[in-house]
Amino acid sequence: MEKNYKTIMQESLNSKNAEYKEIRVEETVSTRINYNGKTRENVSINSHFGGSARSMTNGGWGFTSFNEIDLAPAKMKESIELAGFSQNAPFEIQKNTPKNVILTAEVKKDPRKISLTEKINLLDHYKELVLSDKRIQGCEIVYGDTERKVIFADSDGNEIEQNFIHVILRIAANSSDGNEMLQSGFSIGSLGDYSIVENLDNKVLECTKKSIDLIKAPKITGQETTVVLDQILAGVFVHEAFGHLSEADNVYENKRLQDILKLGEKFGNQDLNITDGAKIPNLRGSYEFDDEGTPSTSTPLIREGVLVGRLHSKETASKLDEKPTGNARAISYAYPPIVRMTNTIIENSTNTREEIIKDTKDGLYVKNWYGGMTEHEMFTFSSAETYKIENGEIKETLRPVKLSGNLFTTLKNINGIADDLEINQGGGCGKGGQSPLPVSNGSPHIRINNCLVSSG
Amino acid sequence: MEKIEKLLIKNFEQHEIYEEENEYKSITFEANKLKEISIKQSKGFAVRAIKNSGLTFSSSSNYDLEKFSSNFLELSEFPTKTNINFPKKYDSENKAKIFSEDEFLIENSFFINKLDKNIKKILKKFPDALCDAEFDLGKGKSSLKNSNGLSIQSEESGISFFISAQTINGNDMLNIYNYASSVKNIEDVVIDILTSKLIENLTIAQNIKETPKNGCPVIFTPHGLYQTILSPLLVSFNGDNLSKNLSKLSNKENDDIFDKKITILDNPLIDFSTSSRNFDSEGIPTKINTLIKNGKFISGIFDLKTADEYNCESTGSAARSVHSNTFPSISNLIMNTGDKPFNKMIEQIDEGILVDHLLGAGQGNELSGDFSANISLGYKIEKGKLVGRVKNTMISGNSFNALKKIDEISKENENVYGSLELPFLQTSNVEISS
Known about the structure:
The complex is a heterodimer.
Chain A: H1 2-13, E1 20-37, E2 39-57, E3 60-66, H2 72-83, E4 100-103, H3 116-131, E5 138-154, E6 159-176, E7 181-191, H4 201-213, E8 223-229, H5 231-243, H6 255-260, E9 274-277, E10 298-303, E11 306-307, H7 314-320, E12 328-329, E13 338-339, E14 343-346, H8 353-358, E15 362-375, E16 378-390, E17 393-398, E18 401-406, H9 407-410, E19 414-417, E20 422-424, E21 428-431, E22 434-438, E23 440-443, E24 446-455
Parallel strand pairs in A: 4-6, 8-15, 14-23
Antiparallel strand pairs in A: 1-2, 1-5, 2-3, 5-6, 6-7, 8-24, 9-10, 9-14, 10-11, 12-13, 15-16, 16-17, 16-18, 18-24, 19-24, 20-23, 21-22
Helix pairs in contact in A: 1-2, 3-4
Chain B: H1 2-11, E1 14-30, E2 33-51, E3 54-60, H2 65-75, E4 80-81, H3 102-105, H4 108-125, E5 130-146, E6 151-169, E7 172-182, H5 188-205, E8 218-220, H6 222-234, H7 239-243, E9 264-266, E10 289-293, E11 296-297, H8 304-310, E12 318-319, E13 327-328, E14 333-335, H9 342-347, E15 351-359, E16 370-382, E17 385-390, E18 394-398, H10 399-402, E19 406-416, E20 420-427, E21 430-433
Parallel strand pairs in B: 8-15, 14-20
Antiparallel strand pairs in B: 1-2, 1-5, 2-3, 3-4, 5-6, 6-7, 8-20, 9-10, 9-14, 10-11, 12-13, 15-16, 16-17, 16-18, 18-21, 19-20
Helix pairs in contact in B: 4-5
């Protein structure tokens, strides 16, 4: 079967001329188990096959997708015709040394070897644990594992097969103050390791307790204040506040933005170092080759507060004449690859968490996350837990807050980075309709001055 | 598919097979230039089957039917509890126009020229602007058959137009977009209005003004109203949340919840709207549902499962993709208009904000109706005029409170996302911080 795929893919690449051609086929099987309220809502196994052809002519792209492998040669021809409508200035796409490889999935504890019964028994147990406190109104549990095989080939001679297994779990407990629903939860994930969803009783009970604590927690009014972020929320912060603007598809056609985001410009203080890379192993954003066949890297983005790099696809690297970084990713065969983050990390500094909090006279300790979004230099992200800090001590629980800022001021307002880096793998990223893409974010505790926050 | 049907008849009391085949075309301009043309095809099928009050669901696009069958039988050991019956064939008078093939016959160069022309209009006024623009075309066939005799074939189509412009002054980046969609080709006059409006808004927004103090009058554009207030509110109308008692509206039918000035309908039968449908995804004929009438909560939206759990009838609101089980979904949301022209609403304000777009909406606790987000596009009103844009400003509040007392509703309404008809609305129950 697989041989057959590869033969047809190569046949497709031999068709008609274009400056660049690539073809991808993909097989996925995913298991999903959901709970909502007090019951198990859905157990499903969905399996999919599809492929896509992409080509470039006159600086423009044609893209086609299909569900039947036999259509591949015709769809490649069609993509070349579509690219032919372009009349842009041509550019030469950067080439890498062609590879012909088959990469098996990284597996520690294989979710495919765990029976559906065993998975459901475990999740049923967590559900009962959440609901064991009568003050809890309901729970939300989402478990998923996905087996994904992607075969990529291009007109430069690459033929790369990669296999991935992803595991995700979110558990949340809902309580109510009689008027409003309140929620506390956590999200985790791994590349090929089912064991992360095991032995979570303490974490589940802790999340239940936090949900109940919210019942009496007051809301804050909108204000500018000092915030200390835990590792999880600081990871979301670096993703939203900086990561998206380091994606070169924002700047490669935008001269003005290139002037603003010039390599060598200072964006933060001396102790700020940010890196993104799929080369960092065994995380949900890790891989050997991106969806354009470019080898993955680990890319320093900020060094000692100075902008030193950005994330590239073949096209953005070619047009900006910078080195490819292997950040072109597609969420599935049905989408063209676009520039995306992988594993994005603020690196450790020398402070301890305790020193940072002790040194904060008045502010908020914000932990865990609901979500985040970016639009150019503006971003928002939301905490799932919030505590008052008074005279260097963590005090009462408050309702979760939304934090908002601006790239140019907020990064410079970071004035404390701890030494306790942790990486969160429970998130997914959305861009250009492609969501949720597996990524991970990491950071030590950080403190930001003058951050705009409000409840909600 | 016959093999699967045999398996279902043998092992289940009821079953339903849904098949879908779609084609999409996108013509995309990026940074003022044609970037990509894409044609995507997709097909797949989904099966739901019931035995002993338990429902099993699975979907596939790889047509490995042996594997599908064995997975399905394994899954059926862990069904979702339900008492629903798949519907019998219904007679329906519904004839909303939801299909037109015309657009797919149009040459690519026609769309390319139209996008290029509209981008050039913007560049004439703002030569340094970077514009993205796009036409998206889609058509699809679906078939729904169940073991109770229902068999529906349906064809749908849609086209949408999108245009955006970005300007940069110093470290200030501004991005404004407009959008329209329809089942049939979008007329030039509609596109011209969208582009002209974008230029007008881009002009006003070049001036950055100081944010007025909290407590100032706040008007929402139809888009701002949806994004800020209605989107979190609709979570509480969803049958799934009503039936689980998670919604603040659970068992509050006919209670006065909102300002008497508010009436909201869900109308799935509007000709040429891309969200219209004559049957829902379970085969129930659709109908106009009143959600709020003169401030009273009338009804939520339900599919068969959530209706059964809430002890009411399905409102014909089931939606699905080929990869998902059905879920209740709004079609075309229509809110009543008021008496006052929009320009008069602005004229009577000495200092206030007109909220148009938010960044970070929908990330909070939506079940409570709470919202909190950065105003990514909001205009300052000064002495009855729009004078510029506010920046680095957050808006927060609660949808239920915001709609409890309305100051004004405009005489005009506008179409948002092709499927919402909403007015401009002024309410005082929101908080502004900057």
